[in-house]
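Morning F.,

Quick status update on the modeling queue. The single chain you submitted on Monday has been processed. Sequence for confirmation:
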Amino acid sequence: MSAAETLLTLPARRGRALRLAKGEAVEIINTHGTQVVDTWVFNAEDMAEYLSNEHMRANLGKLWPGKGDPLVTNRRRAIMVMEEDTSPGRHDTLIAACDVHRYAMLGCTGYHDNCTDNLFAALRAIGLEGRDCPSPLNLWMNIPVAAEGATAWGEPLSRPGDRVVLRAVMDCIVVLSACPQDMVPINGADCVPKDVHFRHLPA
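C-alpha cells below.
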C-alpha cells in the first residue's frame, strides 16, 4: 500500500480536506455504520465551481446519487463519479450543513461543533479560504420523504464497514465532515457521532 493509500481517520465531530488530481479517488468508510459524512467538492482551479445538489438532482432525475452516477457542479458538469457504494444507497441531498444557528434552534445555549465550521477549518488547514458553505452531499444521511412531501430525521440504513468511492473527473478539493449532530438521531439512535476512515486512492 502506498503512502497515498494509507487508511486515515476522520475524527468524530471534525473535518478534513484533501486535494485530488483528475483520476484519483477518495474511499470513505463508515466504520461503525451510523455516521453521516457531509461531503463537499470544489474545482481546484476555481472554487466558485462546486458540487451542487440542486443541479445534480436535475441531472440525475432523483433525490440521491448511486453507483456510477456523476456528481454535478453548479456549472452543470461532472466533478466526480460515485464509483462504488456498498451501502443501501441512501444519501441525503436536501438538508443544509449544520451550523451554530441550527443548534441554537434545537436549544443549545453554548457553542456546538458543526459541519459549516468544519468545512472552513478543513480548508484553512490546507491553505485555502472558503467564502460560502454550499449544501453538502450528506453521505449515509437518511431523510425519508413521504408521498405528500413531509420529511423526517431517520437513522442511517448503512452498516459497519460500508464504503463509498468517489473518483475525480477534474482536479478537485474534497472536504469531509463527520457530522457532530447529537440532538436528532441522524447518527444513529444513540445520537453519538463517531469516527470514520478514508483513503486517498491513485488514478
